[in-house]
Amino acid sequence: MKEIYIPGDKLPTSVRVSRLNQNAVRKTGNVLYATVVGSVDEDMFMPFEMVYIPKEGDSIVGIVTDKRNIGYFIDTGTAYEGLILSRETRADFHVGDIIFAKGERIEEPDTVILSNPKLLDVGRILDVPSSKIPRLIGKEASMINMIKEKTGASILVGANGYVWISSKGKVNKAIQAINKIISKAHLTGLTDEITKFLG
Amino acid sequence: MGSHNPNIKLIVDGKRLDGRAFDQLRNISINVGVLENAVGSAQVIWGDNKVVAGVYGPRDVFPKYQQKPDKAFIRTIYSMATFASIEEHSRSGPNKRSQEISFVLSEAFENVLMVEKFPGKMIDLHITVLQAAAGTRLAAFLAGMAALIDGGFPLNEIAAGVSAGKADGALVLDLDKAEDNFGQSDLPIVYNSSGEIILLQMDGKMTRDELTESIELTSAKSKDIMDLIRKAVERKYAGEVKTELNFR
After folding, report:
1. Mean per-residue pLDDT for A92-111?
2. What is the CATH class of B17-234?
3. B56 CB near a chain A CB, below 8 Å?
4. Domain residue limits at A175
5. Does residue B4 have a pLDDT over 70?
6. What is d(CA B57, CA B60) in angstroms, rounded to the nearest whole number?
7. Same domain, A142 and A175
8. Which chain A residues are closer than 8 Å to B158 by Cβ?
9. Quick one: which of A100, B33, B170, B213 has the most CB atoms within 10 Å?
10. In the predicted model, is pLDDT for residue B1 greater than 60?
């Protein structure tokens, strides 16, 4: 059983935090404090549960909900709406299209300007808690690459919690694996278990 | 607090009516993650108080005029169930008392939640008292606090509170129904984990020395309650946590 940190707890000095989890800690002087519940895994602070706050550079999977002169409005499944400016893209999207884009900047209070949008193929979108995304990706994308390799499905993970899965490959197996990762993200020995599960 | 009645004995043979020592709290149990639809939730059983809290958000502010450009708007709704305490607070639903408590709880939560992370957004915190037996605002605060932690809202610190009061001239902690109704004073205080006071209300009379002593006693006890929150969180993550995955 790993030690659990709750908000306000001082983290050991060796602990670092990944870009995706930068809101899970706050810094006072040189000391890091946890702001959400989490544990330390190989010197990285891993939140168990965390509300999504958009950051610049986030990869975002979303659905086109509206098309206007200014651009395309994107549902990101969070409190923040995505916007692809029409002056920055030549692509032609339709309402209901699934896209993958980079968060370029946050326009207060609640719009994320997206850049480099790519239209995704037919597939399904899984709504995953955004706090589990770093775990699903794994160290240097090891976890997600393993799922892709073993099941033959194409998967794209958005930091906002939307996970796109293509229609080819062993899709059900991939979804089951993702489900396992989500419910056991805070336990040790997860990688071994998923390796075994995927066979 | 009702009126002080000198004929009612609240301290008998150096003990309180329910047999507790002067500085002893009622039993507190906390469970987190009890509601499936809420982002975060908690249930608190504090003596005979039963409170459930669920937190939703962040989301767009409605009505719009309550939007704050630089921080989140926390809407706390404290309410009593219709069956919570029939004779005491004769009807449930919004009334002067519940609106006041909702307001002070919102103000207290604003001190621990990192509201600046959600500019222009709203966080909805619904707290329902299922059974009331004195000290519901502190039980409600504890439930709300645990729900915020469970939902993964970034917090500067955690907080918890205990009430102090005077019954039959003695300084006691965590007042029960009789002490609340017939004692001389009631003083709920909430502390954050660095020991700062973030909520203080007072009813009745107390001397300056008694107030100082109350603060010392409750401050130490609030740490014990924070440990209970920690234990509740640890219990949740001891095993597998069921999460429902939805297709969009």
Report:
1. 89
2. alpha beta
3. no
4. 123-198
5. no
6. 8
7. yes
8. 6-8
9. B33
10. no
- A105 within a domain of the structure (yes/no): yes
Long-range contacts of B10-13 (CB under 8 A, 24+ apart): B10/B167, B10/B168, B10/B178, B10/B179, B10/B182, B10/B183, B11/B167, B11/B168, B11/B169, B11/B170
pLDDT (mean) for B160-173: 92
Last residue of a domain, one of A75, A104, A119: A119
Alpha-carbon gap, residue A106 to A90, rounded angstroms:
22
Mean local confidence (pLDDT), A4-16:
94
Percentage, residues of chain B above pLDDT 90 = 67
Q: How many whole angstroms separate alpha carbon B189 and alpha carbon B44?
A: 18
Domain boundary among A71, A104, A119: A119
pLDDT > 70? residue B47:
yes
Any idea what the CATH number is for the domain that residue A192 is in?
Answer: 3.30.1370.10
Q: Is A183 on the interface with B (CB under 8 A)?
A: yes
CATH code for position A41 = 2.40.50
Residue A142 within a domain = yes
The pLDDT value recorded for residue B193 is 92
* Residues A132 and A193 occupy one common structural domain: yes
Strands (E), chain B: 11-12, 15-16, 28-32, 40-46, 49-60, 73-80, 121-131, 159-167, 170-173, 185-192, 197-200, 203-204, 246-247
Nearest residue on chain B to A186, alpha-carbon basis: B237
Q: Flag whether residue B72 sits within 8 Å of chain A, measured between CB atoms.
A: no
Domain contains A53: no
Cα separation, A197 vs A151, in Å, equals 11
Q: Between residues B247 and B99, which one has the greater pLDDT? A: B99
Look at residue A104 in the predicted model and tell me its pLDDT. Answer: 92
Tell me: do A115 and A128 sit in the same domain: no
Q: A35: closest CA among A13, A20, A50, A56?
A: A50
Number of domains present in the structure of chain A: 3
CA distance B113 to chain A (A): 9
> Given pLDDT bands bounded at 50, 70 and 90, which one contains residue B226?
very high
Q: Is B121 part of the contact surface with chain A (CB cutoff 8 Å)?
A: yes
Structure tokens at A103: 């968060």
B87-112 pLDDT tens trace = 666 566 788 889 999 999 999 999 99
CATH number at residue A93: 2.40.50.140
**Domain boundaries in chain B?**
17-234
- The two structure tokens encoding residue A36: 């959400």
What's the complex ipTM? 0.89
**pLDDT for the residue A138:** 87
For range A18-28, the mean pLDDT: 90
